[in-house]
């Protein structure tokens, strides 16, 4: 499964049985295999490619709506972070929900109006 940290970094979590690429040597048995798991960091482009393949395989797991929101954004936009008071962050979240838009769009509009 593909995940995105709050900081914007992507990673892939995978798990599988003893015949999968996630296999591990069974503890105490040098000839035995057991299932395992792994976390792999991904670049934005690697995450986009993974999502496109997942969408083609199972469009319920990787929906078009999520793809558009996450990967089809303006090339002239950059990611940044700001520190807000907790009550200000809550107000921003509530405003975005009420207006049916993103928090980024609200902040961008406020700055453009300055």
Topology:
Layout (H helix, E strand, L loop, with lengths): L1 E3 L5 E7 L7 E2 L7 E2 L1 E7 L1 H14 L6 H8 L14 H14 L3 H10 L2
Antiparallel strand pairs: 1-2, 2-5, 3-4
Helix pairs in contact: 3-4
What does this structure look like?
The protein has helices spanning 44-57, 64-71, 86-99, 103-112; strands at 2-4, 10-16, 24-25, 33-34, 36-42. It has 114 residues and is of the alpha+beta class. The chain has two domains: 2-74, no CATH class; 82-114, no CATH class. The strands form two sheets. It has a three-stranded antiparallel β-sheet with strand order 1-2-5. A two-stranded antiparallel ribbon has the order 3-4. Helix 3 (86-99) crosses helix 4 (103-112).
Describe this protein with a few key phrases:
114 residues, alpha+beta, three-stranded antiparallel beta sheet, two-stranded antiparallel ribbon, 4 helices, 5 strands, 40% helix, 18% strand, Ribbon_hlx_hlx, Ribbon-helix-helix protein CopG domain-containing protein
